[in-house]
Amino acid sequence: MNDTLKIVEAIQPVLNDFDVQLYDIKIVNSGKNKILQIAIMNADGSMDIDTCADVSEKISIILDEQELINFEYFLEVCSPGAERILKTKFDVENVIEKHIYTKFKHLVNNKLIEVTGDLISFKDDELTVSYRDKAVTRKVSFKWDDIDLIRLAVKF
Questions:
Q1: In CATH, what number is assigned to the domain containing residue 123?
Q2: 141 vs 85, 123, 136, CA distance in Å?
Q3: Residue 69 and residue 40 in one domain
Q4: pLDDT for 33-74, tens place per residue?
Q5: Which of 26, 86, 125, 149 is most deeply buried (CB count within 10 A of its CB)?
Q6: How many whole angstroms separate alpha carbon 65 and alpha carbon 97?
């Protein structure tokens, strides 16, 4: 089992106690420092700073007790952010009617390389997005396999 999986296994009871989900875990190099970054979220994708602080405190105790990390690091428990990447089809299914940004692997409809709009549907590996093109609202449909990147987007 690799180190990340050991950490996930060790902290899962804390995540369960706070009824939050693990979004991502990674080690980030910041100059000479290493940061163990643990991104968490509620089932609806939201997160607040107080929960992050409480979870951080409990995780810190576990990591210190179990000595799972053999180098100096800073622990950062955070939200995945308002523009979090949607990594799986399950993630996408849970953001129907939300504002998203999608970058394609190739031109879609012979003109779009990216689109920002509201996700209308996701069915049979096909997504439909409603977006503004100047003063006109348009819809575009594309396949899951056409996507290079998809994430939530802040609507202005």
A1: 2.30.30.180
A2: 20, 11, 17
A3: yes
A4: 999 999 999 988 899 999 999 999 999 999 999 888 888 999
A5: 86
A6: 44
Q: Name the domain boundary from 78, 108, 123.
A: 78
For 30, the token pair is 């910041």
Residue positions counted in the chain:
156
Task: Enter the DSSP assignment of 29.
Answer: E
28 in the same domain as 70: yes
What is the rounded CA–CA span in Å between residue 45 and residue 93?
13
Domain-terminating residue out of 78, 100, 132: 78
**Angstrom distances, CA of residue 139 to CA of 17, 59, 114, 136, 142:** 42, 44, 13, 10, 10
83 within a domain of the structure (yes/no):
no
Stated pTM of the model = 0.84
